[in-house]
């Protein structure tokens, strides 16, 4: 395909998020956080799904549906093993109706074994969790459209159940699926409207440093493109920036980041490779520099990978807001 034939890039969208934990000020402050994200110009506000120190995502979405006006609301992402898809579908369409059609439903296979163990929920092998998620995605696709579902799978059986209430969005609220490994990304490419691309992780849940580079990210996108086929043009690609570091000296900040990594910080990173300063500066997952430089870097990420939907961690929502002003509408 020549550059003249290439499709126009998707417009940027920006997602903030929150957990409603004690560090953020608790459940009441959580609603104000979403309202602040709306005020700052974020397009969506996402809630993760953990059994520990955070609000319950489904109940919280119900509150946000009536406490906000324009910002889209959703989950990033629900653990499939925590809920039956038939029940989730009803909750999701209810929230879509209450919010006036603003839901984005993110769901994944579930990856934190400790949480499953704490809750007494079976934590199956990866292949089983992915297969179970695939069945859920097929069921959700039908029920979220308000259609009758008849499904006979290895994990779920649905007989004559019609989705209700009918969602506000048509044909259904968008489904987001995220992952870092090839099997999860291939599954997302097959079913999802939004694919969230994360660096691969170890069995212990540590993020592989090798996965944060521009080239590794572009390779994951190539895998999605191959698995999606003709669907690829209809898929929105999302990623989450793990650190926003405003500075007048990008190179010096990148050197500091490399030094921290070599000293074992942050502890959730597995340093399986040695990166250069340029690798750090080019990484889609790090935003380093002046606001103009960060905006330019995000443009380069989209040019190289076609990713356009940018996620930001709760603690950095305000720090990143000036970049939104530079990129809004592009």
Q: In words, what does this structure look like?
A:
- With 330 residues, the chain is α/β, with parallel strands linked by helices.
- The protein contains eleven helices and 15 strands.
- Strands 1-2-3-5-8-9-11-15 form an eight-stranded parallel β-barrel, surrounded by seven helices. Strands 6-7 form a two-stranded antiparallel sheet.
- It starts with 12 loop residues before the first strand and ends with a helix.
- The model has no long low-confidence stretch (mean pLDDT 94).
Largest sheet report: 8 strands, parallel, barrel
Strand content: 15-25%
Shape field: globular
Rg (CA only):
20 Å
Q: For the largest sheet, list the strands in their spatial order.
A: 1-2-3-5-8-9-11-15
Helical proportion?
40-55%
**How would you state the average pLDDT, rounded?**
94
Structural class: alpha/beta
